[in-house]
Amino acid sequence: MADAPGLAALQHWMQTALLDPGAAAPDGTASRVLTASAQLGADRRLALYQHGCRMRLLESMRSLHPALVRLLGQDLFDRFAQEYLDACPSRSYLLSRLDEHFAEHLQRNRPDAQGEHEPWVDVLIDLARLERLYTEVLDGPGTEEPGHTAHGRDAAEVTVAPCLRLLRTSAPVHHYLIAALRGEDADLPQPHPTWLAISRRDYVVVIRELASDAYTALHALSTGAPASRAVGTADPLRGRAWLREWAAAGYITVNVRPCAEEGIVR
Predict the structure, then answer these.
(1) Is residue 127 part of a domain?
(2) Torsion on CA atoms 203, 209, 211, 216, rounded to nearest 10
(3) Is residue 99 a contact partner of residue 61, using CB atoms and an 8 Å limit?
(4) Domains of the chain: total
(5) Residue 39 burial by CB count (10 A; 0-12/13-18/19+): exposed, middle or buried?
(6) In a domain, 100, yes or no
(7) Could you tell me the sign of the dihedral formed by the alpha carbons of 107, 108, 109, 110, in that order?
(8) How far is residue 212's CA from residue 156's CA, in Å, rounded to a whole number?
(9) Which of 43, 59, 202, 251 has the smallest C-beta neighbourhood within 10 Å, fewest atoms?
(10) Considering the domain boundaries, does residue 226 fall inside one?
């Protein structure tokens, strides 16, 4: 086996062959680096590994999107997931990141792309986005751990929880997700603009609806705007109520310096 590829090249080939079989066109490598058995040749043995790997990835996609599986049925979901895995082969060693681009893939390949816009497709894509954020919040950093990192330029006054995610959806898809996680039946959400905050308290993911103006203000805070600018367009009483409410929910930590011109005082 003097003509066998080096270790690094072999590892790259094997990874590609398992995760992206279409990119690993038959070139004789399998027969040079894999042994055959009495019943199966090298190519066939590789095909068995490829099938097993794909089934494991498909199983992971189902576990990351229980609500979509319930909504579409497993057969149709598997078809969408298989197309996604073909278009976006896994690039992370973490299975929890396998679906990072699933919602974007669904958006690019909408079933109604060639015809009249169908609201149910928006619901499907929004549900995929929400399930992705649910995983991020569940597995990512939170406020439970000491020394968690804040983001936002005005951290001296407002610290935004690292587990906070915000999402605008075309329907209240969170009701469907919560029902699916509980094993309960639920009707397809009807189109209705919805603004959501997804966060975590004591290692439990909490999803809550927000008013549109509160969502806009909290989104501004999450992207680094000073508190005075983020809630400055609201009535001062309403702005203070938001800050207290978000602090109680664990979205932010507030340490406001008295400053009348900012309109945000204790």
Answers:
(1) no
(2) 50
(3) yes
(4) 1
(5) exposed
(6) no
(7) positive
(8) 26
(9) 202
(10) yes
Query: How far apart are alpha carbons 99 and 101 in whole angstroms?
Result: 6
Q: Which helix (H) or strand (E) holds 225?
A: none
Distance separating alpha carbons of residues 174 and 98, to the nearest angstrom: 21
> Can you name the residues that pair with 208 across neighbouring β-strands?
197
**CA 172, CA 130: separation in Å to the nearest integer?**
10
Note if the pTM is more than 0.85.
no
**CATH number reported for the structural domain that contains residue 243 in this entry:** 3.90.930
Domain that holds residue 188: 145-266
> pLDDT tens string for the chain (266 positions)?
445 567 777 666 666 776 666 655 555 666 666 666 777 666 666 666 676 788 899 999 999 999 999 999 999 999 999 999 989 988 888 999 999 999 999 999 998 888 889 999 999 999 999 999 999 999 999 988 665 444 444 444 788 999 999 999 999 999 999 999 999 999 989 999 999 999 999 999 999 999 999 999 999 999 999 888 888 877 888 888 999 999 999 999 866 455 444 444 33
Length of the chain: 266
Cβ atoms < 10 Å from Cβ of 232: 16
Strand 165-169 with 158-160, pairing: unpaired
Secondary structure of residue 198 in the 3-state scheme: strand
